[in-house]
Design goal:
Elements (H helix, E strand, L loop, with lengths): L2 H12 L5 H13 L1 H18 L8 H24 L5 H21 L4 H6 L11
Helix pairs in contact: 1-2, 1-3, 2-3
């Protein structure tokens, strides 16, 4: 494993939430890489310090206010997504297809068909054969 890959799973490693195979690979990397080993040690120390703090439940009023804010934010995001069709790639593709079909139909109106050409009178040229 490289340092980038280890950095992505270091939090899970320090919480012992990796599969045995992946945990073994991370351990092997930490044994060979002093920088990553130092980062893992620092992460463990921070987690140990944070675990010493006592958790206090939020007051019911604050919890209700947070729920209202989250709900209002969710609704506003849903409204923006519903009306923000210009940014959707699917709408862009559909609009491009409609424009292409419109252009093709207009272009085809300007090209005479074989039946149309057969109905037109033949012009005689001023040459010997005609």
């Amino acid at each position: 494993m490289n340092c980038f890959a280890v950095g992505n799973v270091l939090d899970y490693f320090t919480d012992d939430r990796l599969t045995p195979g992946l945990r073994e690979k991370v351990s092997a990397h930490l044994n060979q890489c002093p920088e990553c080993a130092k980062e893992a040690s620092l992460l463990r120390a921070v987690k140990n310090e944070l675990s010493r703090f006592e958790t206090t439940p939020l007051p019911e009023r604050l919890r209700n206010e947070l729920r209202k804010l989250i709900s209002a934010e969710s609704r506003s995001v849903a409204i923006v997504r519903r009306f923000n069709w210009r940014l959707s790639p699917a709408y862009g593709v559909a609009l491009g297809y409609v424009a292409l079909m419109l252009a093709a139909s207009l272009f085809s109106l300007g090209i005479p068909t074989q039946a149309f050409a057969a109905e037109q009178p033949q012009h005689q040229s001023g040459g010997k054969n005609g």
